[in-house]
# Entry
Amino acid sequence: MEQHYPDIVAWFRGAAPYIKSQRGCVFVIYCSGEVIADAGRLPGLIADFALLHSLGVKLVLVHGARPQIEQKLKSGGISARYANGLCITEEETLTLIKETIATIRFDIEARLSMEPVNIPAGNAAGGHHNRIRVASGNFVTGRPVGVRGGVDFGYTGEVRGIDTHAIRALLDTDHIVLISSLGLSPTGEIFNLNAPDLAVAVAASLPAEKLVLLDGARISSAPPWGRRPGQIALSEAQSLLPGGKDARGMPGEDREGEETRGFYRHLGRAVRACRAGVRRTHLIDHRVDGALLLEVYTRDGVGVMVCADAYDTLRRALIGDIAGVIRLITPLEEQGILVRRSREKLEAEIDRFLVMERDGAIIACAAAYPCIDTSDSGPAVKMAELACLAVHQDYRNAECGNALLMAIEKETRARGMTHLFVLTTHTEHWFREHGFSRAGLGELPRTRQRMYNENRNAKVLIKPL
# Structure
């Protein structure tokens, strides 16, 4: 068992900044009916909800019930009817739907009540509770979808309003809020709501820091445009949708396969949530053990994250970045890949650096040094040296190096440089793949020739700008 300790310590150290920054934040988590029906994985997921709660995250859970409703209707000899991705709810089916949703809600409450609070000091008011407090209620006002495209959806509804004041009050008193996919009208009618769309509405109304969409195959299926990205900006996510839409449902003809259409529907919901003020929306396959914790408490997660703001930031380095740059380049200096730089040298030259930041951590850096030779007999030689290009080992296949190189080229070109050169001992082929050519020492500016370290014997590569 001892051999696992380093992994646990490393993970905990990596998770610590997220635990601290997310304490007190509101997460709205949608669990599809398929997730609830997965008897083998649901207990672990409930335990993860309890763990998030004990770490100070304010949780709002929105549950689906589609497969359970379909099974209930089937057992009653009724076939579920759908149009444009929405269930058609008739009066005879509404009673069965209410029974099914109530059963699921009480089951989730019972499971959460079995989980320990894990807060030995008790709550802020001085009381001690040996179980999690869960609250449900009439938080959602609904209205009928009505007749659309000639289809009467009956008691199928959509969200009209969310009682955010009541939800916030319960969250502030250490409750987990559980919301079912039913909406009440001011006249006492009950409407069957689309659960993931309800989760989007709740997250946008609060607004939540995160919206998490937990599902199975609909999230894990690879979209036609290739592998699922790990993190994407809001603008990119919207461009990936059919026609660039953020509509509530993708038409069935647009994509082949219900699972793929489901992925696009969830991606559309993520876009809507982020546009409404939710900073980050996560699409997670619940079948990955511990997926929720891995997504929330690790830098790269295991799902798809849509960000309202940029997740990776490429910017000019600041004096406060020096510690992060040192952590990044020290292993490469020890291997002899980079020339050693003292902290004092970095402090003096930090304005030469660009850094790539992911979620507060420096994951890549590069610097450019102008080298200009003037001569009475000819035009000045204007070149820039690319130096200290370093990418964290976890991101060397993530195009970080390409992005930094392109940024350095753009910047030096704007400053009137005609060529970019680099001295390298280990990565000649990478630079040649990116447009650099082998050159001789004599082709460098004279000032740089005099500084050349023959003991290092670095290769000279030049790229015209």
In short: The chain has two domains: 2-307, 312-464. Confidence is low (pLDDT under 50) at residues 120-127, 246-256.
